[in-house]
């Protein structure tokens, strides 16, 4: 079945970097864009950016420009999200999510989500 | 940037009630809007895309409407399993933006 499986929880110190992985299975990896979304404890969803697994092109939310890097490995159908210069406000669950494009309506939405990876930033 | 404003931020309703959640865009976004449901401690789930199209497998008591700047998510008859936070999300192609609303927490009265 179609699924996204993310790497496990991380604890990092302020100023460090974290790299979260998201392995796709059950579909053609290069046919769907992938996104990263985060959710701080008790807060809403925040879009971070998108990667095209086919060519590797990326686009990041302005808030994360310069601190986030999204990459992919087509040989293992895995996308990665690296966030640097971590601060306490980056403590959150990080999700990868597949973008579905619906030809008939022109709609775009996130139809498959990873299970989430908790990243805790604490000294 | 186009901002998305959901209302109310929380609501409490009785089983069987008709529930409506509103999402307003600061500029017109055509029908580029999706709705998600997130139950406590769970991963978000896609309910509706293109403002009004029900995702496969989603109960028919959920419906979406709107275009331009004003959108609604309606639950025709609230069920206990609908307790969740609901998010709208807009999509913009240039520049690429996928902004979420702040969420509406729905509880059973």
Keyword list:
heterodimer, A: 123 residues, mainly beta, 4-stranded antiparallel beta sheet, 11 strands, B: mainly beta, 6-stranded mixed beta sheet
Tell me about this structure.
The complex is a heterodimer of chains A (123) and B (109). By secondary structure, chain A is mostly beta strands. In chain A, 0% of the residues lie in helices and 53% in strands. Chain A is globular, with a radius of gyration of 14 Å. In chain B, the strands form 3 sheets. Chain B has a 6-stranded mixed beta sheet, with no helix packed on it. With 109 residues, chain B is mainly β. The chains are: A mainly beta (123), B mainly beta (109).
Radius of gyration of chain A: 14 Å
Largest sheet of chain A: 7 strands, mixed
In what range is the share of β-strand residues of chain A? over 45%
Report the span from N to C terminus of chain A.
40 Å
Strand content of chain B: over 45%
Q: Regions of chain B with pLDDT < 50 over 5+ consecutive residues?
A: none
Quaternary arrangement of the chains shown?
heterodimer
Return Rg of chain B in Å: 13 Å
Q: What is the largest interface, and how many residues per chain?
A: A-B, 25 and 28 residues
Ordered list of secondary-structure elements with their pairings:
The complex is a heterodimer of chains A (about 120) and B (about 110).
Chain A: E1 3-6, E2 10-12, E3 18-25, E4 34-39, E5 46-51, E6 58-60, E7 68-73, E8 78-83, E9 92-102, E10 107-113, E11 117-121
Parallel strand pairs in A: 2-11
Antiparallel strand pairs in A: 1-3, 3-8, 4-5, 4-9, 5-6, 7-8, 9-10, 9-11
Chain B: E1 4-7, E2 10-13, E3 19-25, E4 33-38, E5 45-49, E6 53-54, E7 62-67, E8 70-75, E9 84-90, E10 92-93, E11 96-97, E12 104-108
């Amino acid at each position: 079945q179609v699924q996204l499986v993310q790497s496990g929880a991380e604890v990092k110190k302020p100023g460090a970097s974290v790299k979260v992985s998201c392995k796709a299975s059950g579909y053609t990896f290069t046919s769907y864009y992938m996104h990263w979304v985060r959710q701080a404890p008790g807060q809403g969803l925040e879009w971070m950016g998108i990667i095209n697994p086919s060519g590797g092109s990326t686009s990041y939310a302005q808030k994360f420009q310069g601190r986030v890097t999204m990459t992919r490995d087509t040989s293992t159908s895995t996308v990665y999200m690296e966030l640097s210069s971590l601060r306490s406000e980056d403590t959150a669950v990080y999700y990868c999510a597949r973008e579905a494009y619906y030809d008939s309506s022109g709609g775009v939405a996130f139809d498959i989500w990873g299970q989430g990876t908790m990243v805790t930033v604490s000294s | 940037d186009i901002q998305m404003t959901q209302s109310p931020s929380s609501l409490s309703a009785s089983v069987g009630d008709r529930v409506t959640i509103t999402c307003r865009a600061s500029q017109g976004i055509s029908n580029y809007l999706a709705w998600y449901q997130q139950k406590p401690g769970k991963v978000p789930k896609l309910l509706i895309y293109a403002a009004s199209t029900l995702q496969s497998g989603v109960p028919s008591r959920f419906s979406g409407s709107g275009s331009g700047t004003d959108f609604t998510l309606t639950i025709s008859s609230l069920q206990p399993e609908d307790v969740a936070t609901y998010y709208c999300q807009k999509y913009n192609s240039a520049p690429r933006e996928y902004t979420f609303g702040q969420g509406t927490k729905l509880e059973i009265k």
